[in-house]
Batch of 4 targets.
Target 1
Amino acid sequence: MRLLWIGLLLMSAYGLLAQKSSKGMYIEGSFHFGKAFKHRSTITIDLPDFSYGTELNFEIKTYGKKHWHERCGFPRWGLAVAYQYSGNAEQMGHCIAILPNVTVDFFRHKKIRLFGRLGVGLGLITKPFDRQTNPLNNMVGSYLNNNTSLRLGMAWRIHKNIELRPSATFNHYSNAASTLPNLGINIPSFQLGICYMPNPVEEEDYIKVAPSERPQRSKRVQFSAVFSMGFRELSPGSNLKYPIWHSSVDAGLFITRNNRLKAGIEYDYIGSSYAFTKHNGGYQDKDLHWEASRITLFVADEIMIGRFAILAQLGFYVTQNVGQPWFMSIRLSGRYYFMDPYLNPATPFVTVTMKSHKIIAEYFSIGLGAAF
């Protein structure tokens, strides 16, 4: 019955899109089949069943109407609604997600494409940890989580208006320790999609601009400053969340038209570290606020897709204070610039970041910044 309803939903969506569609507006329906796995020895529940699910993705294919389309390889923007069974109905339940995504082609020739897709959105887990009713689930502690999806696949154009898309997909659900427990769910799967393209972009539709006529960037080196805030728990079920304050400054050098290398310094104030030292008897002679502080020197790579950007950052601590888990850190960030930073010398932006040590997430943060 569930598959019947899913099929009816897909057919209805295809019908609506077919009635009136601008060039490059597509819709893809797909099915997942895979299996969640226990990626940490401390996970206390089993995931005995196979995971299955479905996804409906609305996407827009760019073809050169804006200056950055060609510069970024004519990417596709998408918004997906997804369902996935976790593999344990009693203690984990089901996953439902809303997933903004971007797709880029690695190879394109006639009827075949090889592509990669990154999606980052919100995922609802129906049966998180609960001290009384679900105490064995130490993978996810909250209903609302981040859902990150990576997809590598092939698109085969079997008809003018239809693509068949087999792919390998990896889905991750977690809340980055904002609510414990938080070991996260990892589900690799095979995904098979059928994309309906009522008004497809053809090779002759691409708008390509000669190098001499392309708009010039405003500056090659651009600085940015960021301030963000997050929360984390120290023990499962405590409902006591400690604030985390983060700030950073950096300089970014364009090394290609849509990629720049950054170097900077950041400061973190970890509220849970301050609470620990304040209530522990061994730190009376120390500055407790300093013990809760971390200073990091970092390098980062920023990939820019229009006003959106994805950053991967590697940092090295110059402090070694209480609760600091390792000598280095990893930070993944997404930014939305209110004006195109390629064309404007200064622009504000909003950012969402996740900081981790090794493979263990420490916190999510949301913040504001400015590039100048």
Target 2
Amino acid sequence: MNWPKETIITKTAIGITLVGSMLFAWELFGLLVTHINSGAIWRAVEHGAFIAFVSFIIYSGLVYQFTRLGHFKRQLIHRRASQNELDAFAIDRIAPPAVFLIPSYKEEERVIRQALLSVALQEYPNRRIVLLIDDPPNPISPNDQASLAATRRLTMEVQQVLDCEANKYREAMIAYINRKSIGDVGDLLRERETVVQLYTQAAQWFRNAASRYEVTDHTDRLFVEKILLERSYRYLEIAKNIRNSSSHLSMDRLEREYKRLSSLFQVELAYFERKRYVNLSHEPNKAMNLNSYIELMGRSFRETNHADGVHLEPTPPSDEMLNIPDADYIITLDADSLLLPEYALRLIHILEQPQNVRIAVIQTPYSAVPNPASIVERIAGATTDIQCVIHQGFTHFDATYWVGANAVLRKVALADIRVMGSERGFPIAKYIQDRTVIEDTESSVDLIARGWKLYNYPERLSYSASPPDFGSLLIQRRRWANGGIIILPKLFRYLLSRPFKQSKVGEGIIRFHYLASLAAVNFGLLLMLVYPFESSMRSFLLPVVCLPYFYLYGRDMVIIGYRASDLARVYALNLMLLPVNLAGVLKSLQQAICRRKVPFGRTPKVRGRTGVPLLYLVVLYGLLVLALSSFLMDMLHARYAHATFCLINSAFFTYIVVRFIGLRSTVEDIMSSNFLRSIERKWATLLAQAASATVNRLRARHAES
């Protein structure tokens, strides 16, 4: 990638946008003054609303362009830590303890197993994995009982598979260290050959695991290629390099290789169920699932039976008690995510540098799993990959947000934002706020308010599956749209707090946009569809101002592996999500007014199609009808600029209902909707009542006769 060239292109686009915006503003405000002076108050109000919407669109475009510039500037100066530096940090000394926490709620066994293996096979030595099962602990349904039992067995099954392999490498390391300690390392060539054989055996294990793994979709394919096969190729390459080395390996180098081999499969796995214990939080969201376990870390407990159920009570450490080890770093991972083997090693290495002691959260914003079968998943994944570029640019302006699916958290930083609350009369600790359903975003503001920083590592080291259909995408994006407005006051308090720094201006512009853009852009777009801003839309400067943004967006699509034509499909996806985003924003307003938490909407992570609620189908088809009727009315009244806008959007809405949703799926969702079922039940009841009344009348007549 030619980073300097992309930097120049981005700066040019920013310049065109700024000059065009100033000329456009001069024209728009001149027209506004004309309306006011002529007494055309309604025209002035109409024009003012258009100015407000277009100003936010230009603001959003500039944020994208500046963050793109920041991303490329970071790439220009980025230097990967060498393998020797990583070995000196994690192999030659005891690496800081890290725990991987994987929250899980009624996930598919296949999905959880992949996540467990992707973290169990991390190259970070001092690691522990805990699956946080959030299913009801005593399910009634036989299917739920079987699913929960299978989930509970997973950690033990993975542990057994890895332990069988780990023992061989651990014993080889111990034997070498013993020989070295008594001065019995005589033949370095023999030791070198032993290391080569061990690496070859490790490579063969990964290759065998890949050949046995059943590949059914693109996620499985990514897992096999990135987690299993690439490791096999890498260890064969290491074995080849060691064997062909012209010089003898020193005893210290041999010890390093033995230690690295011993850590490949050496890992501890466990599971934990907070809902088994009455005195832990039972709030149905991911944040409280994580909080419940984090609060227990570094302490010992025993289970005690009370009248209301089982409690966890603190107790001195004992082999018979529940001892929960502490850790310096907590790595959170959604069950549908995959981490590349070097994820933890590289990110914790960054955190351990002296200049980074105030970094609380480090992450690689997740990428979409490539080559999906569904067009919805492919285009939703494209927006995810574009967001990865934007978030990397956020770090350039010190405006990073924690984006949730996976991250490395410094435990002392979480302790700094810990607050106490109560639930059902029990004291409950909160490290990650659950006031909104975008808990990671609010916790980001809490951390920066306490002087901590967040950081995006400028590489792609994690992947997360995108929803494969509109039903599951709806659940995810409605949750993402909910909460930004609620967090804004907290952000303003941070930005206005002392001491004031000039860097806060750029940071504030980007942070505010991240929280407010969904509400402003979607309400503005709906207003543009409904109301004909004819005179305001006629300026030729409007496309001039918008063109650099669309050009860069399309260019980025090609850079990250998509087609330039996918830019139009991304616009269609955003139109499809218009009612979804507005619903999320309205939920935020409802929560702000009523001061009641909104239920956490979990994105389904199972195979099969998720149905779309009837309301959203009605709204989307209604928007198609609205765009077409607006086009016809505009043509009748010679409003050609707005007519063109409505015609283009009509074409996109038609594409949405045919390609993204599907006419057959629409019929299926309508027929299976609760609304139709309730009508069927009412009609069935009425028919039954009518039949009963008819039978009674016939019986009465028969009795009279």
Target 3
Amino acid sequence: MTDIQQIVLAKRPEGDVTADCFRAETVSLPALAEGQILIAQRFLSLDPYMRPRMTELRSYTPPFELDKPLTGGSVGEVVESKNPRFAKGDIVMGMLNWATHTVHDGKGLRKIDSAGVPLSAHLGVLGMPSFTAWYGIKHICKPKAGETVFVSAATGAVGQVAGQLAKLAGARVVGCAGDEQKCQWAVREAGYDACFNHKTESDVGAVLDKLCPQGIDADFENVGGRIFHAVFARLNNFGRVAFCGAISEYQDATPMAGPEKMFTIVQRRLTLQGFIVSDHVALMGEFVNEVGGLVASGKLKSRETVIDGLAKAPEAFMGLLKGENFGKLVVKVG
């Protein structure tokens, strides 16, 4: 038997996620059954979508179960196998427990090439967040040369890629982030034309009027709330919104109502589309070829925050919901 550490959902949050929503446990795993593999986790991805899963509200993915391990995108190494599809030493990626080790039947796992890039990159710039950005920009925002694209949470795991892809398409790209250092990186490294600190700007509309004098043609929306309200009012005719998330609302018991004057959608012939990237896995190969090439050539930059140790995952996740991370947030498990 193998003793492992895991983190379970101890209670459902009311408002902000707090430390007592989590519980660390040491448990013993039984011997593997036929068809199973034992995976030693190397990196665990922490992402905003996990927050709604902590509640029992209807969503696009089932809620986490109380007193069961939370799960998330992970990269790990097969250390024991009774499954003919996997050999000891294989590096795999998939949805695994918040744990040092996971017993798995292999379904939904993908073997990855560990050469050439850090393992954590498969959870960020070569993984789900980047795939999300690629789909939203290419298939919903569809930026054209000379258009203005706005990206909220401009330096997050998704936003940092979305902005660069829009820029590579020839658009003028404006974003917002939660501190000056992030905004500086967005402009100097990621190629944004402008970025503002939404935490220090009380009148987002006035800032957008200054930075987007010709209006906004496409919006990659990660934040929602007052930022989206201001963007919505400045969308041009035939504007497109790729609604990826609304992190400002995830911990708010009374989130803001939708924008006023919804008839604007008709008047300006707007397209507002929510999307879940798991609906589009058939496009993963196209994404890997296109974005993998941009990463290899140095045309696509990324930042990540690496937290050392599974025990720090709850604190890191709470910080993520407050915007304390810079770029993709991952936990180095082992």
Target 4
Amino acid sequence: MAKLNLSVQDDTEESELKYRAPALEKGLDIVELLAASPKPMPPRQISEQLNRSVSELFRMIAVLEHRGYVAMAENQSGYELTNKLFSLGMSRGVSKNLLDYAIPAIRALSDEILQATHIVVASDDQVVVIGQMDAPAAPSFHVRVGYRQEIVEATAGTVLYAFQNPTSKAAWRKALQPTVSESEWARFEQHAIRARENGFLIAQSTYSESITDIACPVFNDRGLVAAVTIPYIRSKLSISVEACANALVDTCTSLSNALGATPRETF
């Protein structure tokens, strides 16, 4: 799985670390392994992947489970990460400030258009849902907080890519392009161009043929920060896709202004 390493690099070699904490390192190894795994992992598989004995990792797993960072899957097939780390990350200043403004905004939007809405941010080569709102008294598609999807497969991911600055976009392209076929990348780029030109993107959901995704970027005083998506479902109560798109753009523009975006960053 490709990783978008857009953070400041730390050139300190592992061998140069002045202090070591073997127990902590084992625990972090378990967390990072489970984070990268698409399905739960039993202790034996964890030990094999980390090249350590089951007995060596048993206490680490037990403590992580007790503290709520990992949990046994419902089908008892192995351990998986809980949303605790995600929740801790969302309590930080930037994310909390975003959600403080975004949740009331998408709630009002859902009430207006009678569709579910959710807000996503980029996380390595994926998008992750950090907030969502169900539609009131209407059929809608529920996306749970913490849900992840590959950037190149998500309409919101396309929008986040489209509105990156040139340097960041080049880094994203370098990391993402090798993960898909040539035709898939060409389609992704075409959608990104359309999103940039229109200020939003309407596209068929890759999850279900009955869903049309409508996504729009959100900016703050530092630039692009998130995207809001409407997983549009047509029903007797629904308004048109175009009307939903207009309402979404208005919401994201107001949200961006509230977050301190400059006029050139809004629509």
